[in-house]
Each structure stands twice: as C-alpha cells, then as structure tokens.
Amino acid sequence: FDFESACRIWLILNSLLLFVSFFIILKLTCEKLPDAERNFIAASSLFMVFSFQPLIENMYNGQNNILVLFFFVLSLYFLREKKSILSGVMLALGIIIKPSFAIVLPLFLWKRCYRVFFAASISLAVSELLPILLYGKDVVFSYWAIGARETSLNNINAISMANLSLGALINRLGDVAARPHMAYALLCITAALSLALFLYAVYVTRKGFESFNAGFILEFSLLLFLLFIVCPVVHEHHYVLLYLPIIAVWARLSRDMRPFRLFLFVISFLLIALKYSLIQFGLFNSGFLSIFSGLKLYGVAILFFLTADMINEDSKKVSHQKD
Q1: What is the end-to-end Cα distance of the chain in Å, rounded?
Q2: Chain centroid, CA 23 distance in Å
Q3: What is the pTM of this model?
Q4: What are the tens digits of pLDDT across the range 133-159?
C-alpha cells in the first residue's frame, strides 16, 4: 500500500474497532438494565465518545490506543463468558502493545481469576521469548533499554510540556529544569504518591466482587484511572482508553443519580475531553502556576476517587446482603 491508502485503511480499522468496543462496553455495563435506562446510557455515552478531543488526537496521529481498548474490552467480554484462557490472551495482547498498562494484571490475581492471570502471564512470557529466539537477546535487550530511556527522569523532563502524568506535573512544580539538583527528591515524591494511590486501589478492590459483574468492571476501571495518573509518560491521545472506565462509571452513576456525584463526573469529563492547553503559555511551564497545567490529570484523579467511592458503597451492600 502507498502511504495514503495505508492511512485510510488504518482509519477505517480504528473506526470499526471503536464501534465494536463501544457496543461491547454497553453490553457489559447495561445488559440487565431496563430498556429506557439502557437507551439513555447508550445515547449519552455515544455523545461522550464523539465529543472527546483525545479521539481526534488519536486518529490524527495514527496511534494504536483504540486497538488496546479493543483487546481490553474483549478480555472482559470473554471473562463474562467464562472463557478465561481467551480473556487472558486478549489482556496480554493489549499489554504487549502498551507495556505500561500491565498495572491492570494484578487485579485478576487478587480477584482469584487465576486462569486469566496465568494465561496472560504465559502469553506475555512467550511474546518476550520468541523475539529472543528469532533475533537474539542483544536486540531484545536494546529494545527494552530504549524504552527505559524514554521513560527515564531526564526524558520526562524533556517532554514534560506534552506529558500529562503526575511525575511531569511534579517536575514542573519543582522547576526541575532550572534546579536539576532537585530531580531525585521530586522523583521520590512522585514514587511515594504513586505507591500510596496504588495501595489505596488495592485496599478498595480487596473484597466484594470475586466473580465477573458490574462491580468487577468498576474495579478494572479504577486501575485504568490509576494507570493514567502514575504512568511516567501520558499523552492526550492515550486517553482514548478511558472510554471503558468512563462509560462504566456513567452507567453506575445513572442508576443512582446523586447531584454531587453527577457534578463531579461532568466536571472531570469536561477537564479530560475538551481541547485546551495552558502549558503553551510560558507562565504555566514551571513554578507554582504550573499547577494549572495539570487540569486533565485532575479530571482523571476525580474519576479515580469517584470510582473508589462507588466501589466501597457497592461492596458494603454486598457484605450486608451476605449477612
């Protein structure tokens, strides 16, 4: 194919995968709801999908995030269908494309989905061993060394203007470019906050939903939100993967439309979905005012804690029903 034809094919493929992923997400989150409520969630979710600026970024730049979304959605679908091996393989395919997304893998271990966890782990191991057998360990190790440099502290500093991660925000707040001696201290702060958020996510998902249901999808969503906070490098086009957790949270919220939760959801979605960039103004590049350059990160953080709150509430209901 020539370049123009390849672009068109990739665009068509991404569009098809997006629609398939969208309808599977609706099936997973809204299947047991009344028709009127399900139709409302479907219509409003469709509006959110196409009013999402990161989708334009993803399509324009030819990124593969929709492919990752597709594999993750298929993983949850096969888990619901009790096809654990296929679920694990689909999960592994998504992680192979974006290795940083492996943060979702432990959920299947501590929720006792052992076959999914080991199927994904074995698939990932095979995906690493085959290149070593075909090309040699030096080539593979060089590939991972390049990846490590791309997520190193120095490289994060170099691309921090486009980086939406927690680490990049802390680097800007500490003005690490002007004060390189602060780099290690800022790295420790980032690591400590990331670890605290991860342990909180583990605490929230520790019990309550041991089999596949809407609660499990919320727990999966919680880890996806966490990923977009703690991952060293996050660009706007990566946010396409948030379709899954955003629709899952919206479906849960629609069943219990509390005004304050609705307000938080709307604010966070607008922060994530709209096109804006304060970072293009030098005033917000470093120092205290750079705190306003993290608005999209704050939107993800709001959804993270909102999801955790709903999981805690649903988990208590399950405990009371068992008692």
Answers
A1: 63
A2: 19
A3: 0.88
A4: 777 777 767 766 666 665 555 555 444
